[in-house]
Amino acid sequence: MPPTFNQKATARIPASTTNLGPGFDVLGLALQLYSTVTLASSETDTEVVVSGVDADKIPSTPEHIAFQAVELVFNRSGAKRPKGFKLQIENGIPAIRGLGGSGTAILGGLLTANALCDTPFSDEELLNFATELEGHPDNVAASLYGGLVVSAQENAQVYTVRLECPSRLSIVLAIPDFPLSTEQARGVLPTSVGFADAIYNTSRSTLLIASIATGQFEMLHVAMKDRLHQPYRTSLIPGFDDVAESATAAGALSVALSGAGPTIAAYCLEHTEQVAEKMQTAFKKHQIASDIKILKPDARGACVHIEDN
Fold it and tell me: How high is the pLDDT of residue 47?
């Protein structure tokens, strides 16, 4: 069927926190924090409108990654294109803070374009497209499917298993007021790791998956330890050790960087307000202001609907 240019598509996509300590580029958890992307045809040139959180840090041009995702769907589907598009992004996720903001934008463009083209691509195909644009599957898989995801790539194909994450787990985010690009955070990583460190992370990431899947959260203080990326990346985040120690002293089960950082995520069953207060205070001691969010895992993942334009 031809694209439905008399309609518009809107997608709501959850943020994600990834790695969870040892699961570097493999583990992702969707969070109840959302951005919304709306796509409609236009009789004039393409327009990209960005509003919401950190809108000043996000380009309002066709170079935006969400519009690149729209282009990808139309190019690969062979669908007839309208004269122009109006792409609206209501951003609810702090930008360049390790919360999967670029992944939500990519999925928003893919899902809305796919809907207007009468859904030529499956979720699995869209995940492959998203990973192609993002460079790694952990954020986009979590935001697409919701819950806890485990992902791997083989010959450009993404393989993902989704697990439920019990809702009694809360994630306290301390979001410092400075960005940290993925490129910068990857730039401090070593080019190789020792065999012992590889075994260390394999055991912890496997234990982490089993602990969350079975609700045995008492193991998270061991399961979230990491030797592959956090020892290097935390050097870019003043006060990381103090923030992490303050969170665990206040009752957090464990603490990890959210993605590449600089956001620090504490995993809690209780005492969330106390943990949040202590994390923010610890950042202040290092002259860093921070925003605090106390979130639950998102179980639904991304959703899209069509309505008349």
Answer: 92
Q: Are 176 and 153 members of one domain? A: no
Domain holding 196: CATH number?
Answer: 3.30.70.890
Give residue-wise pLDDT tens across range 98-133: 999 999 999 999 999 999 999 999 999 999 999 999
Q: The whole model's pTM is what?
A: 0.95
Which one of 134, 164, 194 terminates a domain?
Answer: 164
**What's the rounded Cα separation, in Å, for the pair 73 and 56?**
27
d(CA 260, CA 281): 22
Rounded Cα distance between 93 and 258, Å, is 13
| Structural domain span for residue 79 | 7-164
Low-confidence ranges of the chain (pLDDT < 50): none
Domain boundary among 164, 199, 224: 164
How many domains does the structure of the chain reveal?
Answer: 2
Looking at the fold, whether 57 and 193 belong to one and the same domain comes out as: no
Q: Give CA–CA dist 214/223, Å, rounded.
A: 13
* Shared domain check, 139 and 216: no
Contact 246, 279 (CB under 8 A): yes
Q: What is the pLDDT of residues 165-176, one digit of tens each?
A: 999 999 999 999
Q: What is the pLDDT of residue 4?
A: 65
